[in-house]
Amino acid sequence: GQEKLSCNPRKENGTHVVLCELGNPMKAGAWITVDMELSVSGLEDMGDAITFQLQLRSKNSPSPANASVTVPIEAQAAMELRGNSLPATTVLPATWHREEGSRRLEDHGIKVEHVYQLHNKGPSTVSGVTLHLAIPSQLGGRILLYLLELGTEGGMSCTNPPGLNAEQV
Length: 169
Known about the structure:
The protein has no helices and eight strands. By secondary structure, it is mainly β. It is rod-shaped.
């Protein structure tokens, strides 16, 4: 018949141990099958597998039986990229002439701010994510967007693209 095991987690010599009582007394030559479901957290930096050391001890036998089981780890996380432009629509004049050498923002065009948000929808945490954004700054040899600055929030770091605020506006 199927029975639920009584298991107790504890720490032994700096490792986490789960002790399960399988039955006492057990008849000689008895066979039992145990299915265990483990929930383990904090595996983000564990590599691609985790190994469990199993030990079967009997009070009647002086030497325990040892085995190890290696279980592959697969982290799952759904990433979502959201973006907005402020203002959402910009109409440029048919003839636009920027003033060469000017340090005033309004002499270089209409300000448009692009905001991107990268969200982890889980279930796992993520680290070491790299996001590459390709922003067209020229069209037909003429300046389309003048990249002024790049900023981040939330503990991320960015590499500035070449030509960022090249004219020091």
